[in-house]
Amino acid sequence: MVDLRRAAAIVGIHEHVTRYSPDKSELQIQGESVIKALADAGLAKDDVDGLFTASSSIRNSGMNLADYLNMYPSYVDNTTVGGGSFEFHLSHALTAIAAGRINVAVITYSSLARSGGVSVGTGGVGRFGHPILDPSPDSFEELYGLTTVGLYAMIARRHMHLYGTTSEQLAEVSVAMRHHASMNPEALFRDPITVEDVVNSRVISDPLHLMDCCIISDGGGAVVVASPEVARNCRHTPVWVLGAGEAIAHQGAGKRDLIYIAAHQSSPRAFEMAGVTHDDIDMAMVYDSFTITVVETLEDLGFCKKGEGGEFVSGGRLKVGGALPINTDGGGLSSNHPGMRGLFLLLEATRQLRHQFDGTGRQVPDCKIALAHGTGGALGSRHSGGTVILARD
Amino acid sequence: MTTTWNRPLPSIAGETKPFWDSCRRGQLVIQRCDDCGEYQWYPRGICANCWSENIQWVQSSGRGTVWTYTVTQQNRTTGFAEMVPYVLALVELEEGVRMFTNIVDCNPRDVHIGMAVEVTFQTATPQITIPFFKPAT
Question: Residues of chain A whose pLDDT is less than 50?
């Protein structure tokens, strides 16, 4: 394969601070975010030739966004594979830039999941309106009242059965994320919590409790990706893409061992491309739709063996200062979760690699290499996994 | 007694019609490939393993075990909202394929991984009969 290491860099970011915006449209949040991310990079509208977006609510999201922004991109990608879409976008932007097709790409996303009252995790098949099922696979699944949280709960139950993982171990993930959120003024929930708080919160779909589940918020943001030539003249130190891996996991005609998730396939691809090892990773952004998502992802990314995730996340290992700090913004469990959260993994990884929080407890000391892994869809049925490895000079 | 089925109903395509026809007769059928011999679930027009079109409908024993499950306490969709708590499960059939289902006719607290179950059918409409699983007798 062509060596793609450092063929593109993240040069601009913006996280829309909103967690509740009933008076804005989704396209407005994206527009505001794109403008500010380009300003962060020191680039202008006319510099952008690639447009990347995903949406579960905007039809023809790439076309409609180009129209709203009054842009005429020469490269458009609205790959929509759930929450991990934006790690796929970065992977695709890397390839397009390395091939010389484009020089500057913008990746953006927004959602009004909270002000729209969308029951993301517990709405079942009716969460986007009256259900008309596709002949397959819907018609062999949705008859039984699948919910997003239910699909993750079934994997959590299986994990507990096979490996002895406990609810208290899962709760450690929520506790660590809330600790990080307490240092993020934009986080929706900032008051510290304990393992007892999590396991005593009401059961949504056993073994998962309310506080094992991510929050629902509005929000949005944008990322600007550029070629090395452009990146060297931008305002911030470039955050280079070292490696990227993509994967889809599904039921494999009823035979896949669902305890292994898409990260099991995408992670070796990303590490091989990047030419780094797990010991080189200073911090990770791991999609935390539910606590079990983090445990499964850390195992299948290879940070610990299969079945040892429960022990790995315990004892404060995930906090800044621990063995592997993750989700230093508070994650989807405490900061924000507007429908699909993968974009925010890239934002916080970039902030850490820029050393934006130097002198505070949120900064991972001497952070040089970060990993982000987005999961989209549901572990129990079918989902995407996008792994990216990022580095500063 | 007439009941109104207020949960979602399946849509039926040519490739899945034999399955739903069999359910109406009280039989659970799955597919096996004549070329590679593999069973598959969910039903489809090609063999998911070798992409052959020589697939046959075969009767399943209708018996299996609970591979994993959850007791759902919250679902906002009409039809399921009234049903909570209910057991959502993946059942592994004796033929080796796993399918989503509800475990019915038992206390949700009694369900466990490895539990032996067997198929049971409920008539949703005159056209549609849906397979579920219950504890094996």
Answer: none
Residues in chain B: 137
Residue B121 in this model has a pLDDT that exceeds 90: yes
Rama region for A327: left / alpha / beta (φ>0; ψ in -120 to 50; rest)? left
Contact (CB, 8 A) for A97 and A241: no
Q: What angle do CA A356, A338, A56 make, to 5 degrees?
A: 130
Count of A-B CB contacts under 8 Å: 146
Q: Where are the beta strands (DSSP E) in A64-135?
A: 75-77, 104-112
Contact between chains at B43 and A140 (C-beta distance less than 8 A): yes
User: Tokens representing B133?
Assistant: 């699983």
* pLDDT score for A118: 80
CB nearest to B102's CB, from A122, A144, A149: A144
CA B101 to chain A, closest CA, distance in angstroms equals: 6
> Does B11 map to a domain?
no
Domain that holds residue A334: 9-116+214-391
Domain CATH for A219: 3.40.47.10
Determine contact: A150 vs chain B, CB below 8 A.
yes
CA distance A193 to A258: 31
Question: Is A137 a domain residue?
Answer: no
Which residue of A127, A133, A140 to mutate against B (max B Cβ within 10 Å)? Answer: A140
- Whether residue B24 is contained in a domain is answered as yes
Residue B2 predicted with pLDDT over 60: no
Query: For A320-335, b where at least 16 C-beta lie within 10 A, e where not — what string?
Result: beeebbbbbbbbbbbb
Say how many domains are in chain B: 1
- The range of the structural domain enclosing residue B99 comes to 17-135
> What does the pLDDT read at residue B3?
66
- Whether A335 and A329 have beta carbons less than 8 Å apart is answered as yes
Mean pLDDT of B43-68: 98
In a domain, A121, yes or no: no
Q: Note whether A249 contacts B: Cβ–Cβ < 8 A.
A: no
The residues in A 186-225 lying below 8 A from B, measured between CB atoms, are 202-208
pLDDT at B99 over 90: yes
Taking alpha carbons only, the member of B113, B93, B133 closest to residue A259 is B113
User: Taking 70 as the threshold, does the pLDDT of residue B87 lie above it?
Assistant: yes
* Substitution target from A118, A120, A122, A144 for chain B, most B beta carbons within 10 A: A144
Mean pLDDT for B92-113 is 98
Query: Does B86 sit within 8 Å of A135, measured CB to CB?
Result: no
**Tens digit of pLDDT for each residue in A98-151?**
999 999 999 999 999 998 888 778 877 776 665 788 999 999 999 999 999 999
The interface predicted TM-score (ipTM) is: 0.96
Nearest to A154 among B12, B90, B97 (CB): B90
User: What was the pLDDT predicted at B1?
Assistant: 43
CB-based contact A158 B67, cutoff 8 Å: yes
Which token pair is A274? Answer: 């990047």
Does A164 contact B at CB distance below 8 Å? no
Asked if the structure places residue A138 within a domain, the reply is: no
Residue A111 located in a structural domain: yes
What is the model's pLDDT at position A270?
Answer: 98
Say what the pLDDT of residue A180 is. Answer: 98
